[in-house]
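User: For a benchmark we're assembling, each entry needs the component sequences followed by a predicted structure for the full assembly. Here are entry 17's components. Please fill in the structure.
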Amino acid sequence: MSRKKEKSNLIENKKKTADNEIIRLGVTLFAITFVVALLLGITNMFTKDRIAAAKEQSAIDAMKLVQPEADEFNPIDVKLDDAVVSSVNEAKKGGEVVGWCVKASPNGYGGTIELMVGISKDKAVTGVSIISLSETPGLGAKASEKSFIDQYVSKTGPLNVVKGSAADQNDILAISGATITSKAVTSGVQAALDCITKLQDEGVLK
Amino acid sequence: MNSFIKQLKNGIITENPNLVQLIGMCPTMAVSTSLVNGIGMGIAATAVLICSNAVISLLRSITPNKIRIAVYIVVIAGFVTMVDLLMQAYTPTLSKSLGLFIPLIVVNCIILARAEAYASKNDVLHSAIDGLAMGLGFTFTLCILSTVREILGNGTILGFHILGRAYQPALIMILPTGGFLTLGIVIAVMQKLTSKKGA
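Assistant: Structure for entry 17:
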């Protein structure tokens, strides 16, 4: 065998082992990811229903909080052209409609704030509940405290955010140090009120 | 048994991941604003650490050196997702307040550091114990920091008011600044205590 041929054989062999190695690495990584994916699938299967139930329960709890009189909630199937309002539920008491629960998600200081707003038939706020927020603890996070959130009860709008002291019937006193959060929550409540007015005007809601 | 205690002590005090190795600072700062968050994050990270250390140690002979980091991350991400799903299903309130920080355990460098530095070189049992020890060390730091920050910054502990209504909470303690201040002081105290012991 000539030297040249030997050399080319050697290079070929080297190339082969390199190819083999890539395949070996690929197969190992694939096997591991496959097993992990399988286990995740199983975990998901077992927790899926519970997670859905927990989410639904927290939504119902929030609706009960803002419409304390109602005993039944039915989602209303409407197309909402709204960036803030995401769903509307009918609140019923003994089969009769007493108002609506509107879910709104305005943008706060630290991300989206999810609110549930209860609105009575005469378009006054019956209650507001914060489902989730990621505002600064100690400042914006105070938005979920009763002293702030109860300000909205029985207001009809249009709402204004004020500092210092609330003079007008529709004034909302801002949390000190958290004006952005206060404005965001207020805009969410206002969007919920506007949405109900609009749906009523369109004849979707009676 | 002796080596078990030694390993535990190593994780919690001598080589405490936060206070001595100074790794995993981001989640430490972010979740130590209240004791509930601190404990929740600590337990979640400990569970992930034990499981990932054990599995990575189990796979150490078949893990090719060239793709070991990829394998570690897949294993860690798998466990974190499981913990996340389980928490969403069984502790929805805690899962909500920890929010994004649970998925972020994937990139918590304590876990990758222990996989690379310990689990890939030691047997399964010792790796699991190391995971437990380091996890407890992390939980220990979180508890100290969050207790201090919650009391001073909010006047509460586990949500109960203990300093009375008249206490004006020092907001700075809840904000990142307070986190750095507390962490610095805790590290200094820890150094003082351990250096005395050594002398």
